Amino acid sequence: MVREISAGGVVVRSRDGEWWMAVIEPPAGPATRIPSATKRGSKSKPVLCLPKGLVDPGEKALEGALREVREETGITAAMVVKLADIKYTYVRSWGDGERVFKIVSFYLLRYESGRIDNIAEEMRIEVARAQWIRLEDAPKLLAYRGEKQMARKAMEYLSANVI
Q1: Would you identify the CATH topology of the domain 2-160?
Q2: Would the pTM count as exceeding 0.85?
Q3: 3-class SS of residue 95
């Protein structure tokens, strides 16, 4: 079984007395849409997820998380605390169809600078859009269970600590 090591961040900033979090939306496609029931039938809503990606050889997980945040959102951030590691297996839907054991290290990061969605054009194959959402809305808006848990952990940390 192949092993992959990734890292990502829950980037937060306080604005108007509320915590906001940076999220990304992958380009639209069948694998990146979630069905959503509506009065007029079935539509789909965009997939929102945390900025994350593979840790480069020789790179530490935190360095990878900060790099991925910068590349995928256009913003820079600083570490507050490591939130957790998420571990899961999946089967590649491309190429060899290999089973993969994946570990993703997530960090709570504080926004420092930059404009959200100001990313390099070559990143548009991975990110259709980056945006701020209210942190309290994140558990219902994020697409993936593990990332919803990271948003909840970030809220818990911020309610108990001053950053």
Answers
A1: Nucleoside Triphosphate Pyrophosphohydrolase (3.90.79)
A2: yes
A3: coil
